[in-house]
Amino acid sequence: MKYNIKSIDDLSIEEVKHKRALIRVDFNVPIQNGKVINDLRIRSSISTINKLLELETKIILISHLGRPKGKRNPEFSLKPVYEELKKLLPKTNIYFIETIEELKNKSNQIQPKEIILFENIRFYEGEEKNDLEFAKQLAECGDFYVNDAFGSAHRAHASTEGVARFLKPAVAGYLIKKEIDYLSKAISNPEHPYIAIIGGAKISGKIDVIENLLKITDKLLIGGAMMFTFYRAMGYSTGKSLVEEDKIELAKHLLEKGKNKIILPVDCVVSNEFDPKIMKHGALKEVSFDSIPEDGIGLDIGSKTIEKFKQELQNAKLVVWNGPMGVFEIPETAKGTIEIAKYLAEITKKGCITIIGGGDSASAIEQAGLQNSVSHVSTGGGASLEFLEGKELPGIVILDKK
Prior knowledge:
The chain is α/β, with parallel strands linked by helices. It has helices spanning 13-16, 40-54, 79-88, 100-109, 125-128, 132-139, 158-162, 174-185, 207-216, 226-233, 248-257, 276-283, 303-313, 335-349, 359-367, 381-388, 394-397; strands spanning 20-24, 31-32, 35-36, 58-62, 94-97, 115-118, 144-147, 170-172, 194-198, 219-222, 262-263, 267-271, 285-288, 297-301, 318-322, 353-356, 376-377. α10 (226-233) packs across α11 (248-257) and α13 (303-313) runs parallel beside α14. The longest helix is centred in the N-terminal third of the chain and has 15 residues, at 40-54.
């Protein structure tokens, strides 16, 4: 899918100066005890905000947080984000507005180079329904539209797709532009050798990605719990490991289709109980893929697999990684994921383009402290997955074409 869309760099001074920029951002960040605990998504939008401040626009920021299902719920308030934003932009007047009526009034009163952060857009039922009357109300609060929320670009909601029908120009911010530039490298005329690493628990969420990547990659390395569904498809016993019984036939079909491309782990780390306390006391062991014990639960790729995957990756020109290699949330079973992350940082230094496809892989890269050592870490889990599947993203397709 090729996106030839306009970005904020394509706007003229006349189109933006002293005008109201309605910007859809992705401030769906983790919050604990009323505090933002990871501000990556907020920081990712700052370059777009700063550019529009320089151009003397009035800025209205729209975002969702969590899934309040169309009802006001203080647990999902963007107030903690507002506090964080004030720290990131200390010299800027920022207002927090809670209702759409207040937003209409305040958007007509603010001065150039001031910002409004609107309360969680998903407090309104019209948002997720992409209600066009609601989208029109939003459009009244701006003079032009900027979508910079890649993490929500695969959703046709009122603030991601509907509003762009009524507010023109409608363009991409720098974050979306960067996401498209990098993810396009993985889909259109990619460099070779091109290797994809696909992990995570289930094949079911990654079928379309695997199918699409099999057409364009040279090798596809499989990790995470989905490896056990593939093992079963090959007739091996998998103990008590997670297997999608209803996807075994599909795994057979994928193995057939990717006969010389799909590379499965040769060993894995197992424990007889999924309990971090027990794992700490040496209950983890590495076994060959064809000798998983009856009471064994597979939790990570083994050290032989780590070495095998590194060999496959060493000459790559392009690598896309989506999904962890094991249960990376627990230190004892994070080794496979962390080692692959470190190796990707190594080959990036040699000029390989490394693209991390959002979600858990992005968390894993951050956990390893390597987010600045790879080419690109996507901010959108579901959106990057759909992009790699070759699907059109409604929040991007709707934007003005160049």
